[in-house]
Amino acid sequence: MMGLLFSEILIADAVAASAYEMRTVLQNVGYVVQRVESGRAVLEALRNHPPDLILLAADFPDMDGYAVTREIRSRRDLAFIPIIMLSEKEDQDAIAAALNAGADEVLVKPVSNPELLLRVRAMLRLKQAIDALADLNATLEQRVVERTRALEEAHARLRHAEKLAALGNLAASVAHDINNPLTGILTYLYLMRQTVPADSAMAQDLELVERQAQVIAQLVKQLQNFARPPRKDKQPVALGTILNDILKLIEHDLRKRKIEVTCECDCRLPPVQAAPDQLSEVFMNLIVNARDAMPDGGTLTILANIETSQTILVQVKDTGTGIAPEILDHLFEPFYTTKGEHGTGLGLAICYRIVTEHGGEIWAESHAGEGTTFFIRLPAIQEAEAM
Question: Global pTM?
Fold first, then answer.
């Protein structure tokens, strides 16, 4: 009974004497009771604060209890409130009418105190069970939604990993096939430049050819790094130090482009187990992308904070042009670029591979015209590991 104490009961009865007696009995055992005297008052009370149970007379001056019951049952938010109809006579037709209208029980007046308490307690227990089932159903639905979303994300990551592996094999093969003849070309260019005067037109032409060949060599190196990133020893690394070093290298260029920089690193950040130059490559790539997204200047914000006791979250935000939704889904795919001939489409793919190989996650959020934020989540070294 303790779980039912303080349940709120609405008595709707125009007859003051019977309403008073029922109210007294119910209040004496711990229920909170309110009384109204008309059908419309019942509907008004339900709008303000729905009770846990309604004791509803069959007859009112303004509208009968059957009409009130049908109105209540027509509303989804009130459908589970138990209704006990109070009938003036023990008539089978009246009982059938009450049940057909949607009442859960019918009591014939005058109602004895034990019967009243028994029926009220039974209805409240029924409502309690229905409410518990509804809560459980909502929880199960939410868990199903969350589990489905988690499975979809896992499948998406698996498909992405399979695509990266296939493209990695292709990139390794292409890089190998290009690198061999390219090495010969660069060697012969070097030898040819040694045989012509340094100030001749031929020397200038050879220098131009060599520069373009070096561009190809750099692309081949990127392909090799994407296909098989060099294995590097990991060590405890302070993210704040890496970010500050990168900003020192690029601050002059950012200032020249009218880009204001804010960098906030939590002083309590634990170190991460990482290859410093690989993490530097990730953050440099993201900062350069943010710079390119703000051709007319803007604000670059870098935040590094403790997310949980086991993870660190770094955010790289720009106030640039933003990224359209149809592009956002392809950001980390190899060879996908929005920079035209100025981009290879490998920068973010390499970032993705480096971060995942460090046990982390990387993703982006953006709206066209509202800037972009890249998120990097990395596992932190626990105190026991650092000792």
Answer: 0.47
